[in-house]
Write a structure and sequence with these properties.
alpha/beta; Maf protein; 6 helices; 7 strands; binds inosinic acid
Length: 203
């Protein structure tokens, strides 16, 4: 019954993320809305040293504005041979002063840094952390990790970001080759969202 559903605000301007969360929470008594539907708020600066710090900052800041339950996520790629880089800098890995980054530039930089790394040292993982801020102060977290390997060249046309370079070893294909249906079942984001669903079920 719509009248008894609690509002859950997603602190993201990305309509795909809002849709993904809406779909995964189907059946739970929450009405999912994007923060953009509630008003004009400034963008939260993601300057944290970890995914959790950024997710918490976005969720808590947005919660102080809207005074409702808020979820926020932060994610990125961590490459073993690069000591976890690009990590929280994934989106702007190849950015230079005055020059924004792009997926193509980020992937080219990653390939360059990994050029001499042998297959057995090309392990990597995508990590996603979701923060759930409850009005009143509590913040809960859910984390999802998906392990894989960095390819020697881009493969596949689906997805975004580092998808063409991220091989899922069990399937022998990159995220960009697998396509959204398979990716959205096994990805770091899918795993973190499953945890969020459990958290919300306990509220
Ligand atoms: P965000 O947390 O969704 O904004 O992601 C930050 C950055 O991490 C993106 O700009 C991508 O570079 C990278 N990233 C996060 N998730 C994925 C993914 O599923 N595939 C490819 N790249 C990703």
């Amino acid at each position: 019954m719509p009248g008894t559903r609690r509002l859950l605000v997603v602190a993201s301007r990305n309509p795909h993320k809002v849709e993904e969360i809406r779909a995964i929470l189907e059946g739970l008594p929450f009405q999912v809305a994007s923060v953009t539907e509630l008003g004009e708020f400034p963008e939260v600066v993601e300057d944290g040293k970890s995914f959790a710090e950024n997710a918490r900052k976005k969720a808590v800041q947005t919660m102080t504005w809207v005074r409702e339950l808020v979820v926020a996520d932060d994610s990125g790629l961590e490459v073993d041979a690069l000591d976890g880089a690009p990590g929280v800098h994934s989106a702007r890995f190849a950015a230079e002063p005055g020059m924004p980054s792009s997926d193509a530039a980020n992937n080219a930089k990653l390939l360059r840094l990994m050029a001499d790394v042998p297959p057995e040292r090309r392990g990597a993982q995508f990590r996603c952390v979701i923060a759930l801020a409850v009005p009143g102060g509590e913040v809960h977290f859910s984390e999802g990790i998906c392990r894989g390997q960095i390819a020697y060249e881009p493969q596949g046309a689906h997805g975004f970001g580092y998808d063409p370079l991220f091989i899922v070893p069990e399937l022998g294909m990159t995220f960009a080759q697998l396509g959204p249906e398979v990716k959205n079942r096994i990805s770091h984001r899918a795993r973190a969202l499953a945890g969020l669903k459990q958290l919300l079920g306990q509220l």
